[in-house]
Amino acid sequence: MSDVVSKSARLLQSIRDLGSCAVAFSAGVDSTVVAKAAALALGQQAVAVTAVSPSLATGELEQARALARQIGIRHETIATQEFDNDEYLRNRADRCYHCKTELYSQIDNIIDRLGVQVVLNGANVDDTADYRPGLQAAAEHHVRSPLADCGFGKADVRELAAYWELPVWNKPASPCLASRIAYGEEVTVDRLEMVDRAEQFLRGAGFSVVRVRYHKGDLARIELPPAELEQLADDRLRNELVAHLQELGFRFIALDLEGFRSGSLNSVLPLDTLQRRP
């Protein structure tokens, strides 16, 4: 813990040196830690900004509002228009670039009204070693990544979140709903709603870590932690799940026996794509 406390002091100072900031705030553990640090370092000169669009999962906006109140940071919401961008809808490997470009552009549009000078995100050191096209959008918009700059990996972020008693310290990763749509399949509001409602059903059945991936032909590929796969062998739950997902519009329902893997859809991308860095 002493190492994380030491890093947190550097984090607070690095944000304090900015004078004012807006935090791109999704209510995930990374952006929540940055928002908490910004509130501690800058008080009313910090604001958290949450994007609202059909790609936001059920409950995430409400949690963002509750966290902002707990942290004591100003909170703004903005409507992003990524669905007006054909490049986003085509859902190629760079979809996240177009989404983040829209987010940062919208924040830039109101930055004077917010009364801040710098935009921060929640990227950490581990993100810089992964395929994250959104980091290119951040670089183009001069968005700062204080966690990465101060050497925080994901484990460090969770440790600091627990130290600061933030309730999301152990929250599973919660990327936008569009990340569940297989590359090459068009992103539509209907498909995002199908995925969202399917995941909500599984969470209601007791699965806290879950992904429902949409594949061609209205196929749902369900990912759960390997230790929990056996639970879906229960006939009652399995039948209820199949009936519910078919009602949502899925024609085929498959359980991925390899289990949950964050970013599993990236496995189909060419190696040269995965090796690109901003």
Summarize the structure.
The protein is of the alpha/beta class and 278 residues long. It has helices at residues 2-16, 29-42, 60-71, 86-90, 95-114, 125-128, 134-140, 146-149, 154-163, 189-204, 235-248, 271-274; strands at 21-24, 46-52, 74-79, 118-120, 211-215, 219-223, 252-255. Strands 3-2-1-4 form a 4-stranded parallel beta sheet, with helices on both faces. A 3-stranded mixed beta sheet has the order 5-6-7, with helices on one face.
Our estimate of the beta-strand percent is 5-15%
Q: How many strands appear in the DSSP assignment?
A: 7
CATH classification, class level of the largest domain: Alpha Beta
Number of domains in the coordinates? Answer: 2
Radius of gyration: 19 Å
Parts with pLDDT < 50 across at least 5 consecutive residues = 274-278
CATH homologous superfamily name of the largest domain?
HUPs
Structural class: alpha/beta
Strand order of the largest sheet: 3-2-1-4
CATH fold topology of the largest domain: Rossmann fold
Shape: globular
Any idea what the CATH architecture of the largest domain is?
Answer: 3-Layer(aba) Sandwich
Query: How many helical stretches?
Result: 12
- Write the element-wise H/E pattern from the N-terminal end onward: HEHEHEHHEHHHHHEEHEH
Ends apart, CA distance between termini: 31 Å
Percentage of residues in helical conformation = 40-55%
